[in-house]
Amino acid sequence: MKAKMRRATLVLALFVSLGFIFLGGLLGLAPAAQAAVPPLQTPSPQTFSITDTLANSWQDVLARTPLPYTAPLPKPVAGPFDGFYAKIDPAWPQWWICRRCADYRPAGGIWKLQFEQGVMRIYYDVTHWSSLASFTVSGDRLTLFNDPYCGEVGEYSWTLADGHLKLETISDACAFGLRARTLTQQAWPACLPPDSATGVAASPGCADEPAIPAAPAPAALPVTVNVYGGDSRFFETPPDVLVFANSPLRAKRENIDLTYHPESIPFGLNRVIWWSGDWIEVSTERPFTAMGVQFMGDPYQGWARVLFDGVEVWRGDTAAIWSKHGRHGGYIEISGFAPGPHTLRAESLGSDYHPIQVASFGFSEQGGVEQRK
Which of 365, 371, 363 is nearest to 330 (CA)? Predict the structure, then answer.
């Protein structure tokens, strides 16, 4: 046993000695390694970095200019179709935050486009996505380059007739072909000033900010309206009955009729109302003391109004009611009405072309909801 212990000790000592020798070698090489590191170089003026092209408004986009990522900037000369354009894409809008969605992804809502002295700017109003590029024109050919999202050159043919710019793709692989789809799937109406003499109205989407229709003249409401920020499911006193906006069968089991515009958008248990599918409502004869509608979604929510028995009782920006951890919205509660048949309805105002996510309707059997203190 003692012999085994002696051998183990000798082996351990050998490993320790080898460790010290290896460490000493590393320390000896350190000065040489440090000397081999080249000094930092100051980037030359010709070195360019890609900058973030997201913007908070159209005015932010107008203040930006391209960088010569792939080719020198063209001379700032006026082109044959320089000007502002705006279109309304009738497809479903983007109502959710997407960190990995492809650039130039077509989506419903207002798109703005500008061509100005060799600079193209484009902006999607719902999410504030934007980009810009250099362009040149030769005859009926439009060439796009220096786009920060892609190095490919885009080639298009163009025509301008009756105040509409029409682009046709010749070749453009930018963003898996999505840039070409967004630019060509619709004609772009020019943003011309309204002319009362000819009856020409400003094109939708041309204003810096959409005009919100004024509310009706205030009147004494026959009910009480309370606006609560947050999700009513997690209030100190939540609604006694909750009907999700996309669950008409569950509503029917509670003797509540849930109906919505057929072109509103199903989204899990929620319903998204917007431009072409702009309303959702519940009706019931149960003797509730309060009824409410829950707006809840991402920051792209738009303006809505709430009607009780056909009378508008609230209007506002649903995203501005409340926000926390990226979620926006609130609960609009109506109370103080007599027992009987009642209808609660939510409508998109439509003027901003933003989606509105309706999560649910709530019903209280005694009193109303109460938030946590």
Answer: 371
Is residue 373 very low, low, confident or very high in pLDDT (cuts 50, 70, 90)? Answer: confident
The DSSP 8-state label assigned to residue 237 in this structure reads B
- Into how many domains does the chain fold? 2
CATH of the domain at 156: 2.40.128
Query: H/E element holding 280?
Result: strand 279-284
- Do the domain assignments include residue 85? yes
Q: Distance between CA 301 and CA 182 in Å, rounded? A: 22
Other CB atoms within a 10 A radius of the CB of residue 9 amount to 10
Which tokens hold the place of 328?
């926006």
Asked whether 96 and 355 are in contact (CB, 8 A), the reply is: no
219-243: pLDDT as tens digits: 788 899 999 999 999 999 999 999 9
Give me the pLDDT at residue 31, please: 43
Query: What pLDDT is recorded for position 223?
Result: 95
- Tell me which residue has tokens 């008409």: 248
Single out the residue of 84, 94, 89, 123 nearest to residue 109, CA to CA: 89
Q: Do 268 and 357 reside in the same domain of the chain?
A: yes
The DSSP line for 4-15 is HHHHHHHHHHHH
* Separation of alpha carbons 25 and 30, rounded Å: 9
* Contact call for residues 313 and 333 (beta carbons, < 8 A): no
Q: Using an 8 Å Cβ cutoff, are 293 and 64 in contact? A: no
CA distance 16 to 20: 6
Domain span at 280: 224-364
Higher model confidence: residue 7 or residue 342? 342
* Predicted TM-score (pTM) above 0.85: no
* pLDDT level of residue 350 (50, 70, 90 thresholds): confident
Residue 38: what are its φ and ψ, rounded to 5°?
-70, 150
* β-pair partners for 133: 120
pLDDT at 20 over 90: no
Output the pLDDT for position 98: 87
Query: Cβ distance 172 to 180 under 8 Å?
Result: yes
- Whether residue 184 sits in one domain with residue 97: yes
| 248 CB neighbour count, 10 Å cutoff | 15
Query: Per residue in 317-327, pLDDT tens?
Result: 999 999 999 99
Q: Which residues pair with 234 in a beta bridge?
A: none
**pLDDT number for residue 268:** 96
Residue 243's beta-bridge partner residues? 361
